[in-house]
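Input record (one chain):
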Amino acid sequence: MDTIKAIDIKAELAGLPFLHGRGRETTEAEKKAAFTTLAQYRDGGIFSGSFSGISEWERHEKGDEIVHILDGATKLTIMTDEGPQAFEMTAGMLVVVPQGCWHQFHSPDGVTVMTVTPQPTEHIHANDPRSIELSARL
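The corresponding structure, as predicted from the sequence alone:
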C-alpha cells in the first residue's frame, strides 16, 4: 500500500507560474510548468493549475473527468450529442465531464482548477471538435 498523505493544495500551487494567455501558441513546456500532479488516482491523476485564456479541446476516452474550480472563473464548454453546453463556473463549483466528451475552458480573467482526470487525454486545436470527427469519417 502507498503511503497515505494529506495534500496542501495552496502550498503545491504556490511555486507554480500563472499561465497568462493560454492558447494555440502555448507550448507543452509552458502548460506543464503551470500545472502540478497532486496525486495519482486510479488510471490517471489529480491535477491543479492556474491560467487565463482558452484551452485546446480535450477529451478522455477511459472515464469521466471531475473539474473543480478553486479560484477565479471560467466558461466550460462540453460538446454533447445534442451540441455544446456551456457552464459559467466560479470558485467552489464542480462539474463531471462525461467520458469521451470534448470540452474546453475559456477564462479571460483567470482560473485555478483542480481536476480528477483519467488518462490518456486527447487534445486538438480546432474551433469545433465536431468538424475534426466529421472529416475523419469521410
